[in-house]
Here is the input.
Amino acid sequence: MHGDKQQPGPKTLTILLPGGSLPFGVLRKIDELGTKFAFDLYLSTAQNLRLYNIEESVLPVIKEELTRLGLKLKGPGLFPVPRICIGKRSCNLGQIDTMDFSEKILARFGAMTGVKPKFKIAVAACPAACSNPVMTDIGIIATRQGFDIYLGGKGGSQPKAGKRVMRGADEEQVLKVISEVVAYHNQSPAKKQRIGKLLDDPNFPYRDEV
Ligand code: SF4
Here is the structure.
């Protein structure tokens, strides 16, 4: 989903929900604020929670209440929260605990600022790939032999499947690939750049399909 561009009129806020996890305490607070300030809710395809139709005058109060709960709000320059399938916590095909792996990714990269926009990460716990990793800029699929990593996938009007650049990787290798690809993406000259456009650069670190 595209960003929360604040136009004149009612405002929006997007709460980042790692792994699409919505704790009951947060749910109760949203219910309380929604009842008081009459905004609407949308569960985004990126597994975040968008509050929209917020009256401008109450926006600071809502922001303060949400950040006091420890919630992170969507904003420019943040590292993307991985979109994940439910994984082995609730699917018997899952090879990994995707929530746990998403937390590891965010523990390593979540504090980054100034991250260039236009890339997403998706993790699936088995080759059924329910979180659509192959069509995502950085896609990770757990298999019985380790992680397969895809780069450069995208949806939109000209969808493209990502290129598989590694098979059977372990967690540390996945984190290394993410680190190198994000660093390369960040130093690329265009302001916004899909990773798929970088795959053929002579210095791109993962050029070969495997
Ligand atoms: S990708 Fe596999 S493990 Fe994840 S929800 Fe789909 S079937 Fe289950």
